[in-house]
Amino acid sequence: MVSTPTRAKGGKPRPGSTATAARRPAPAGARLRSAYRRFWSALEGTGTSRNGSTYYLILGATLALTAIGIMMVLSASSVESIAAGKSPYGDALKQGVFAAIGIFTMFVLSRINVVWLKRLAWPAVGIAVLLLGLVQVVGDEVNGNRNWIDLGGITFQPSEAAKLALALWLATVLARKGRLLGQWQHVLIPAVPVAAVVIVLILVGNDLGTAMIIMMIMAAALFFAGVPLYLFGIAGVIAAAGTAVMAVTSSNRMCRITSWWTGQSCADGIDANYQATNGMYGLASGGWLGVGLGQSRQKYSWIPEAHNDFIFAIIGEELGLVGTVVVLVLFAILGAAIYRVVVAQEDLFHRVLAGTIMVWLLGQATVNMSVVTGLMPVIGVPLPFISYGGSALLMSLCAVGVVLSLAREQMAPAMRPKRMLKFKGRAGRDKNKPKISRKRA
Description:
The protein is built from 15 helices and three strands. The protein is mainly α and 441 residues long. It has one domain. It has a three-stranded antiparallel sheet, with helices on one face. α13 (311-343) runs antiparallel to α14 and α14 packs across α15. The chain starts with 17 loop residues before the first helix and ends in a 31-residue tail after the last helix.
């Protein structure tokens, strides 16, 4: 066979030759597919989990957000504390104490085998339901919501503990069901009734925002368990209908929705969009670099309790667009790192638990920032790690501790932080540790 020369006279490649094809640019579609694969490969951290980068990304982002939260709680709460005759450092000190307890608990949870937590699933969800019922009997009502229990001067919010308890319980139950989840009856029982009890008890306390986050947790658990997608469509229609009924039957909720949609006060003269409007003023006046830390104008009672649900507006006012972008980037890093943990899990219990926690934290942050920026009607949902509230901060840090334990197991054995606690028994056994045979040779 006579080969065709690839070059013509003068050394130039012939048209249609291999050299010409090598120089030809790839089609746009192929480049997009290649970029898409590189993006997801980087997001999933293929080949990087062993060196501990995922573990330290989660830890670093969490600690940074917690530090920003304590700093901004001090700034946002000082003015109203002084006006009430209290110490300007009181709320920040309380937040710092809960942060210290939460960080310690987070490190403890990060050093234990997550499988051992299965033993706590049923007791945890049982205690959560009991406390939610107790709130309606002896709980305190604040701004129309009955969510808190006063324990010797320290208020505790059981609905925050219910988020973590329900995530753990759902992961345990769905993992035990396993292959049966293709049948709708096994999806519904007992997961949906127990979650519905938690949601109803929270709605009785008039807290629609927290109930929405609980619904999000339940949906995330079912999704990561591999439940058929058509069930989500049915559940979505039912949830939308239920939300519409709750909105129509409550004049307060309808006022919030109409004020958000029209930008005007309600028929009775109440401006339910008052907080959101002043929050937007704060974000707008912050500009690129902000008016300076501690120099907010909106915290002078223009935004009531600015250190709670609308603390993101104070961040934008005092630290500017740069400050808000830093917070967004930290949440993005936290979400991407937890996603790496989720996709690396082969065990159903681990995957459902980590995925549910990811959706809980990122979903709640998205709802809070959407409310502050006017993308959603005003809903009482705190910004994780940043808004004032000891119960929310403690439970969020505990949830991160659970994810850190899973990230730790992905690391190379020589690079893992040592365990602080060791539990005997089958559930707490380290799978990477070889079993010792006790038979005599």
